[in-house]
């Protein structure tokens, strides 16, 4: 490795010379001290080499700015003199061990993280710079074998300052350096690139490319400036949040003091919609409406806990937070962990329940309203129900999220915030799963904002389409059911065609390296596609119709059929969860049979929906046993009301937690469980605050402002319907009389 000339000359290392000379007196008493002096000089050169590992800008031959070179010299001079700030700066820096960047046959990524906070706190009145923490990533670029004999400096010129292209760049080997703040990312990149060349890995030659970006460089001044500078958008969001907080506090205080002693005018009722006292009482109430399906509450809570577990587990393999990422991946291949590693279908439970509840509720309303379908109210109620919490989350992530923490990878949070500022309208229109700037790179684009909300877009789009199935089922019954079933089959057929045309991988891409290249295609063409995810929703509509017809009627099912139903549901659930287990190891199964791959990927969403659907049906009609008692536990009722907010909050909190990490840690099951439980508990706590201050107040407003109008409109529509029916009956009776007269 060519290190160039270290700026401080060897004569400045007198203290090190004296120290090593003193040590040499005790190393070998039989050796003459004069004979040992050349050895000391060699050791001094080794010390300089060791210092260079943490101070790459010390090389005079590297292409760095003059100011950076000068300040690096002052830093090393102070380090020679053992000045505290210089020693702290040196100890805060990682080491550039070239042989550890890429190791033949190893899948583990080497990270020298250094000390983030210690580096930022470096400051001295004697020098015109502060400590600056910068992260350099390394990636491989294939080169032809004949090029490996070229001068190494020419090969290393492939370094670039391009931004991080995808999430997995954060998994590349990296070193965190503590350098003078006057050195730019370009200086650091050039200095490091000067001393890395190529590697031959598995008989293939690669040039090592350095990637450093100003966004991955931090100083205390830069952080303080960014955290005390608010643009107009951020100020507006702060004002809106403050106004909301004042409104909630005022409404709560008024409700506590005068809630039971005043005649509630419309203005008071409007104010009390924001009362935390009222909303807490509603939230913690375990009462259910007569038309509710009690087992759904437990399924909803368990499903959201499962989704949080999957996202937290997946996060352990997405950012550079652990030393043993390969161990996590290998653990994910174990049979008992498939419910986490292969749990991406957990969201299908919510698609099923969404279709079920929409159909079950609306079919009963159609009975009560004589078949009148108020589409305007149907859509507006849904939008008001989902959007306020969603909008608050978008506003927070787009403006305030970057201010809540710092860390070596905090740019990950900042990128999401900046992207969301440009695409917020796409999310509020619920088309973020189709608009290209947001859709591209659903899983690997680090700038992808609030990526979990693809579900909300799919669910809302399915809700828009639901009247096309619900009303025909109510109006024409068997024809409507056949139409829904045919639509389900068409959706499955389209998914199969997409899989075949695009040659999509199985959803086990995490464990099959050959499928990694298609991860974004899989996400865009299947995972976030409404057509591909609508089958569970349609199954939910059919189940809602079945429960609508049978809920209030006693149904007797033979014990053998009940046992067969539970056995079939269990078998389908096990196949969905563990069916791809034999194909995890690509070395054992290089190619998955296309029929197995396509059939599993197309059908497993529907199979899981059928499994959960049977549980709901059996529990509703008294064939659930102890499972029904557990799922109907009263504690699940208030927790279920928090599930929507938990879903929106938990992933953003998880990424903030990971980006805030100062150093990677060694993953174990115990540490993973502790982190999961902590994130889950904090997510529910934050969801409680959001639910009481945002979600429930707007639900109250919806009921207050639109309930009376809906009743008035419904009354008018019913009267019109009765008048029309009366006229039709009158006209029919008149026609009959006229016909009778003619016959006479």
From TrEMBL:
<feature type="transmembrane region" description="Helical">
    <location>
        <begin position="532"/>
        <end position="548"/>
    </location>
</feature>
<dbReference type="InterPro" id="IPR002656">
    <property type="entry name" value="Acyl_transf_3_dom"/>
</dbReference>
<feature type="transmembrane region" description="Helical">
    <location>
        <begin position="603"/>
        <end position="623"/>
    </location>
</feature>
<keyword id="KW-1133">Transmembrane helix</keyword>
<feature type="transmembrane region" description="Helical">
    <location>
        <begin position="635"/>
        <end position="655"/>
    </location>
</feature>
<feature type="signal peptide">
    <location>
        <begin position="1"/>
        <end position="33"/>
    </location>
</feature>
<keyword id="KW-0812">Transmembrane</keyword>
<dbReference type="InterPro" id="IPR052728">
    <property type="entry name" value="O2_lipid_transport_reg"/>
</dbReference>
<keyword id="KW-0732">Signal</keyword>
<feature type="transmembrane region" description="Helical">
    <location>
        <begin position="299"/>
        <end position="323"/>
    </location>
</feature>
<dbReference type="Pfam" id="PF01757">
    <property type="entry name" value="Acyl_transf_3"/>
</dbReference>
<dbReference type="GO" id="GO:0016747">
    <property type="term" value="F:acyltransferase activity, transferring groups other than amino-acyl groups"/>
</dbReference>
<feature type="transmembrane region" description="Helical">
    <location>
        <begin position="233"/>
        <end position="254"/>
    </location>
</feature>
<dbReference type="Pfam" id="PF20146">
    <property type="entry name" value="NRF"/>
</dbReference>
<feature type="transmembrane region" description="Helical">
    <location>
        <begin position="454"/>
        <end position="474"/>
    </location>
</feature>
<keyword id="KW-0472">Membrane</keyword>
<feature type="transmembrane region" description="Helical">
    <location>
        <begin position="675"/>
        <end position="701"/>
    </location>
</feature>
<feature type="transmembrane region" description="Helical">
    <location>
        <begin position="383"/>
        <end position="404"/>
    </location>
</feature>
<dbReference type="InterPro" id="IPR006621">
    <property type="entry name" value="Nose-resist-to-fluoxetine_N"/>
</dbReference>
<protein>
    <recommendedName>
        <fullName>Nose resistant-to-fluoxetine protein N-terminal domain-containing protein</fullName>
    </recommendedName>
</protein>
<feature type="domain" description="Nose resistant-to-fluoxetine protein N-terminal">
    <location>
        <begin position="65"/>
        <end position="208"/>
    </location>
</feature>
<feature type="transmembrane region" description="Helical">
    <location>
        <begin position="560"/>
        <end position="583"/>
    </location>
</feature>
<feature type="transmembrane region" description="Helical">
    <location>
        <begin position="343"/>
        <end position="363"/>
    </location>
</feature>
<feature type="transmembrane region" description="Helical">
    <location>
        <begin position="481"/>
        <end position="501"/>
    </location>
</feature>
